[in-house]
Amino acid sequence: MSLSLDLLDEKREAARLRNWSYQQDVAKNYNKKVRTRTFQQGDWVLRWVAENTTGKLAPGWEGPYKVIKVRGAGAYRLQDSKGKIQLNCWNALHLKAYHF
Known about the structure:
The protein has one helix at about 1-35, and strands at about 45-50, 60-70, 75-80, 85-90, 95. By secondary structure, it is α+β, with helices and mostly antiparallel strands. A hairpin with a 4-residue loop joins β2 and β3 (about 75-80). This is Reverse transcriptase domain-containing protein.
């Protein structure tokens, strides 16, 4: 009985080490592909449409918008092409660069 308990502890420790190694590999592969999005004042961006109510074939991005102010922690104040300033700040996760 005590032999099987010792074997169980060893198997449990080996599984924990395999799990830790797997998580490290997944994190390394994810971090290799992640691109940070930073924009400067004056850059043109597209804004993600959060509530897409017109169906799955509707565009997922709208714009272009001009970055008029860079707030802290990846938040940006936007202005549309007609000059109207957007009330809300937008996080960089919901923006992507617009190229003319």
